[in-house]
Amino acid sequence: MTIPGKSKMIVVSNRLPIVLRKDGGQLRMQKGSGGLVTALSPILKNRGGLWIGWTGMTEKLPIQEIKKILDPFSRESGFRLLPVFLSEQDRDLFYYGLSNEVIWPLFHDLQTRCRFDPSYWETYLEVNRKYSRTLVRHAEKEDFVWVHDYHLIPLATELSRMGFQGKCSFFLHIPFPSPDIFVKFPWRTQLLQALLHYHFIGFQTLRDRKNFTDCVRIFFPETRIEGRSPIIRIRTQSGENLAGNLPISVDASEFIRISRTEEVARKTEEIRKSFGNKNLIFSVDRLDYTKGIPEKLKGFRFALMKYPHLRGTITLVQLLIPSRENVPAYMALKEEIDRLVGEINGEFTTGSWVPIVYRYQSMDRPELVAHYRAADIGLITPLKDGMNLVAKEYVLSQADNRGVLVLSEFAGSAAQLGESCLLVNPYSASEVAEAIVRALAMPPREKKRRLENMKRTLKRHDVFWWVRNFIRASSGLDLEDFPESGLSPLLTPRRGAPFKSFPR
Fold first, then answer.
1. Each residue of 35-73: pLDDT tens digit?
2. 465 burial class (0-12, 13-18, 19+ CB within 10 angstroms)?
3. Are residues 100 and 224 located together in one domain of the fold?
4. pTM above the 0.85 mark?
5. What are the catalytic residues?
6. 326 and 239 within one domain
7. Cα 440 off chain centre by
């Protein structure tokens, strides 16, 4: 069990909070900027913590060369990075294969995109063994081990097989499917058993947690579920687990602060003027078929067709963040988006107005926040999403309280924001169109009331609330129970007989 004052925190995720690349023959490091990095870096700092993950490279490199990069980052960040090394085959079958050609589409209710290759599952397990071998060299029984996301579901099972007797907690960042979808997964029983090896299993929403417990009841009929609070107890023949719904978020104070800076205020005004002060819809999505980008474009086209008064008065700015550009399904999606944008602009463009401004690029945070602040409508229409932090970023960036959030009812964030935003079914072009018209006609007082309601929710339940509550729910500890400490040694001393042998 975790012990106040004696436990260290160990985070395990598919990737380290940095990415290594070869640039001109030199090894370079790029710092990560995702929500998980933002949330956990200050929590791990100077607490003797560890972060285990893949470097992002498949090339074999001398450990001394990697240490030259990782050690300075570890000293600067205040926690130790421990790399896991994957081969090209590991990457192709574990990451591109089982993780992103099976679990990702299936858990987003897009089972027709799944490729159930048996070699994927075997490599998925083998790669999880690699992660577990790295972890057991550094973990003590009393440590708090926090495993993240669908890539590493079998990790606790593999740790048990290696004899590790500590407790592990898990958080699933993507949705968990309903039983009628999950039943299609060829290794469904093994995956459920793997999740039940975790002491605590965290989900984004109550819907996801319920889907999980429904699946457990079907495949393990003796299961008993106890409790009705955000944290419940699951009793099976193999033991007991805790499960909870704890929605992840963003650093609310930071987005509010940035949105009110002079730099962002200036950029916001420049953006509005550049579009002739027309009504702006802003959408930002990573290139992914779960984000509902073609459906959104069709909804916008329907709005222009059905409501002619919108023509010449409104512009959709679609920011598309490059992702997995070498994967055929993503290449095909990019081509579809390019085609739709071209068709819509070709159909409706006039001499002084282009309906869609399409940007395929990344954008730094001040520029992004300025676009959020400039937009009259934030249009976010995933077909399904574990949470969708863009919706929260848009709300928090509304320093002028003038925008309206139009959000897919299938985004996890709809559970928190649904009463104050305009919910739509992204598959319905008419619903998307009607929401656009309604948002534009909304009185300023109502816009302000809705935004302030959402901001209050997000300030109360920000990313640091998520971290603290996850730790408390899964271990009974508070952050203060992890004492300040220097960097953990790179390798712990060998113990006499550290782990008993388990059959594989």
1. 678 778 877 877 778 999 998 889 888 878 888 888 888
2. middle
3. yes
4. yes
5. 173, 385
6. no
7. 30
